[in-house]
Amino acid sequence: MAGIEIERVSKAYGEVRVLRDVSVSIPDGTFVALVGPSGCGKTTLLRSICGLEEISDGEIYIGGRQVTDLPPKDRDIAMVFQSYALYPHFDVQDNMSFSMKLAKAPKTAIEAKVKNAGGILGLLPLLDRLPRQLSGGQRQRVAMGRAIVRSPKVFLFDEPLSNLDAKLRVQMRKEIKQLHQRLRVTSVFVTHDQIEAMTLADQVIVMNAGVVEQIGEPLELYDRPVSPFVAGFIGSPAMNILEASVAAGAGGPEAVLASGDRLPLPAGIDAADGTAIHYGVRPEHSAPARRMAGCGPRSRWWSRPASRPSSIAPRPAARSACAPPTGWPSRPATSSGSGGPRPRPCLRRRNVAAARLMATSGGMAGGVPGAARLARNRAAARRNDWWSLILVSPVFLLLLLIIFLPELWALFISFTNYRLGEPTRFIGLANFEYFLSDPNFWNAVWVNIKFVVGAVTLQMALGLGIALFLATQPFRARYLWIALVLAPMAVSPSVSSVIWRYLLDLNIGPINYVLESLGFARVQWLTGIRVALLSVIMVEVWLAIPHVVLFLYPARITFPKELHDAAEMDGATRWQRFRYVTFPLLRPAFFLALVFRLIITIRAFGVVWLLTQGGPLRQTELLAIYMFKEGFENWRFGSAAAIAWAMLLITLLMSSYLIFVMYRNAFTKSAAK
Amino acid sequence: MARRTSPRRRLARLGAGLVLALIVLWSFGPIFVAVLSSFKNQRDIFTYVPTLVFEPTLDNYRLLIDEWGSFWRSLGISVIATIGAATLVVLVSLPAAYSYSRMARPAVALSALFLIGVRMFPPIIITIPLFPLFTGIGLTDTPIAVILVYAAFQVSMSVLLLKVFLDGVPREIDEAAMLDGATRLQTFFWVTLPQIFPGIAASIIFVALFAWNDFLFAFLLTGTNSKTAPVQIAEMLGAVGEGGVTWGTIFAASVVQLAPILIFVWLIQKPLLRGFAGAPAKG
Lengths: 673, 283
Known about the structure:
The complex is a heterodimer.
Chain A: E1 4-13, E2 16-26, E3 31-35, H1 42-50, E4 57-62, E5 65-66, E6 77-80, H2 92-102, H3 107-121, H4 136-149, E7 154-158, H5 166-183, E8 186-190, H6 194-200, E9 203-208, E10 211-216, H7 218-223, H8 228-233, E11 240-249, E12 252-257, E13 262-264, E14 276-281, E15 286-287, E16 304-305, E17 311-314, E18 348-349, H9 352-361, H10 370-413, H11 430-436, H12 439-472, H13 478-486, H14 493-503, H15 510-517, H16 532-557, H17 561-569, H18 574-602, H19 606-612, H20 623-632, H21 637-672
Parallel strand pairs in A: 3-8, 3-9, 6-7, 7-8
Antiparallel strand pairs in A: 1-2, 1-4, 2-18, 4-5, 9-10, 11-12, 11-14, 12-13, 14-17, 15-16
Helix pairs in contact in A: 2-3, 2-4, 3-4, 10-21, 11-21, 12-16, 12-18, 12-20, 14-19, 16-18, 16-19, 17-18, 18-21, 20-21
Chain B: H1 7-38, H2 42-46, H3 59-67, H4 69-103, H5 106-109, H6 112-119, H7 123-136, H8 143-167, H9 171-179, H10 184-192, H11 197-213, H12 216-221, H13 229-238, H14 247-274, H15 279-282
Helix pairs in contact in B: 1-14, 3-4, 3-14, 4-8, 4-11, 4-13, 6-8, 8-11, 9-10, 13-14
């Protein structure tokens, strides 16, 4: 058990200062709620206490021990997360006992602790369930159980109830309160729900824009907010805040509104005549009064404070001037819940000047001045950067050794007459000149263009049709059919060439048999000069369609069905629906598939090589095959490398768009997080 | 509950069924022919009139087992190359994916651009420099050569995939483990890793699909001692009709090579079709 001392803690992300000089002292055993609008720094403060967030400046003490530089696990705290953060692959028992197992506690001790916590929270029948088999409330209990088992000095709650439904939230609120009364462990509870804060906490800290606005007991905040912000934030409906000025009245000073109406001021207000003030009135402190005369069409019921204003504050509200402790109206005896000062542990805003004094005089052990902390944070960040580099380095080593360096070397030999086992001589651009003047090279370029255009057009068109057909028709055993459609994806170039060599065989091929029995002549599919290219395009399309389907089918089935229904109701025909709804929505996936398939088809080699070896008469000699022959049949590696580099540049140029899209999708989004 | 269907509707359904039949015939028909033919005897394969009804025989497989020790050997090498490549890829891509997902600042994240760029390299152009290089250091004709190349070509895909899966594991769970007293390493192995097993399985499957089926690299970088199954089958195909190799044997060999990967595709198609990117985040 321990109190928490937060001294002049600041946190900045670059220029953005999330916490500014926050100083709070939380006595042992208190239940403290941290409230404020979103972005006010309450969660950051909580994460700083538990050590998940490094602070930029200041000190944090738990139980008198300086923990600012300790890792979370050594701070003796437990936290309940908003999402519960249960380990999905552990059952309830393992979830609760993980920390003790890590600490190598004896088995009997672990069991006893888990039994005890499970008993308190009513989890005993659920111990061997997995988190996904639990309801929201049960998960919440397990998260608390996990915290209890550790017997920490401090409990931290990060909006733990916000994922529960309203009824459960009320119940869990009660349970948390009871738990605290039973265990009496210092607890810090972050919430944006002021009802939670007001009902649960002994003391409430209101934060706004990285600073503590006010600390106090719930009713104190309600009745005596120190600033217009707190006045407006606490209470629902909010306090009415009117602008007024102080003027002398019959029975002492009064507040004068812009309309000229006069409202009473509580006794003991120390304000000179003419001072501009905020006059705050809680709705429940006002009552209907008689209709005022002379207001014409704008006549209204005027709210008149029944007994007293709820709050006033000097205006303009310079923050430091907001809390005149002496000038506050005392709460009327009529309102409920006031019982005079109670002997409750008192939370206070630390005296900043005193804290600074202690830090500079070295009175507090282990106090690190801001500059040293900054250096330390920077060193930690640098260490993190180094590790992130080290972890990615094996991948880059592999790529460097197997792809980049060899490719660079290829660039080098493309300027030489490199042949295996012969002396190498630098010959400048001769290799490039050689292949550029070779008619066979231009034949290969032309064949490649025909092949790519033919194959990609066909596979995209057929793939799109098949994907849409499969996604929209209501079939039984859908996944069986889809598996059969995707099957060619699994077939290696070797096996597909076996299959197609047989199917297309001139003499024994079933396809020629079918043709002949339909009255056509047999076709020399793979050896005929005119049809060979068509045949290899067909086989390439057969192999590629599953890839296209894999791109387009998931894109199609994730469409909202309402879109089509809406288009149908708008009177769109089937074709119009495709033209104006389906295709535009599919376009990103279609385009990605198109670029992807283009890149893969340009480099095609295996199947074509196995089916025709580039023949007949170079009719199917693709660029890759031309290069391959240059290198591995003629053994002219120099010119083969030159062709390789030309191909590489063309592909990289073509694929730069794809690279950009993939990079953006996979990396920059999360980097921005 | 029998709903009456209008004749028009029934006709549409019939048409759809017909289209589906055509699509399946186109995509799976050729594979089916290969499987069927591997159970035919030589005479049935060669009859010009294709036979659908025949007496199934295991002769082709028996022949493959008895006389084609080289095929089984190449299959063994394929297994080694596939397992080796998959292991290597997972080992190097896991830490990199973790770094990209949890640690890397934009400067390091930029290096991923490279990674994706490598995906675009046409494999064949790398064979030109690799062949003399590997020959120089005596790596050709060992499975290590193809393992390295397969890993290099698949590693970027695997890093991407694993990163997406890691991004799907909430950071709060890591933080909870750290609060529970786990070191970063313990957190990774006990808490994070078990949750990305599907991602690891997926990337293993991608590598395996590539390594098991590759013809190009194996053709160029392996010789007599480390021939993989696709190369062996291609060689058998080259010899068909000329000497000793029958279509039946080749079909049997093809089916043996094809079967494991077909089963793979059957197992992974559902997650594939749901789209990998969305799958882990919803888990």
